[in-house]
Amino acid sequence: MEQSPEQIQFPDLATEINQMTEADQDMREQNLEDGSWDVELDRRNTERMKEIVAQIGWPSASKVGGEASTNAWLLVQHADHDVEFQAVCLALMQELPVGEVRPEDIALLTDRVRVNRGQPQLYGTQFRQIDGKHVPKEIEDIENVDERRGAMNLDTLAENIARMEAKYPL
Question: Within a 10 A sphere around the Cβ of 76, how many other Cβ atoms?
């Protein structure tokens, strides 16, 4: 999915999205260390993503390259203060042909939007912490969750929980 800079339509936007994501991830990493949180960074990133989406539509792989497209998803994933914008972006992502957006990004944003709207998630990607464990938030039709996850390029729910426990021990 990754193109060279000369193959993408908006290399300057790709660079900007990647820089925004680096600041996003640095802030979240710092928060894990010292509890600091910059809510304004999420708001600024969301406002800039709104401008980018208004300008070019969803920043897909052919527009900004695979890395920046995934990074655009991450910035929108972190826009929980604006679930309607998340939903608009999700709809734009879902309209694109295969190869323009990673299916796992669509699955993760689908769950984020549903949880933010008080609905059960479809793929089991959103968690809460209960008694020192990572527990998925409510999942619709949990009996078929691994089938849905597989269709979106995700590992099983059990594998995901194990990875969460290893990466983010409580």
Answer: 29
Report residue 82: phi and psi, to 5°. -140, 70
Written as six digits, the tokens of 13 are 């936007």
pLDDT digits (tens, 9 = 90+) for 110-165: 999 999 999 999 999 999 999 989 999 999 999 999 999 999 999 999 999 999 89
- Give the C-alpha distances (Å, rounded to integers) separating 4 from 12, 19, 67: 13, 18, 11
CA distances from 36 to 26, 28, 170 (A): 11, 8, 18
**Residue 128, token pair as written in the block:** 């809460």
Distance CA(84)–CA(117), nearest Å, equals: 9
Q: Is the dihedral of CA 79, 50, 72, 27 positive or negative?
A: negative
Amino acid at the residue 142:
I
> pTM of whole model > 0.85?
yes
* Helical (H) or strand (E) element with 88: helix 83-95
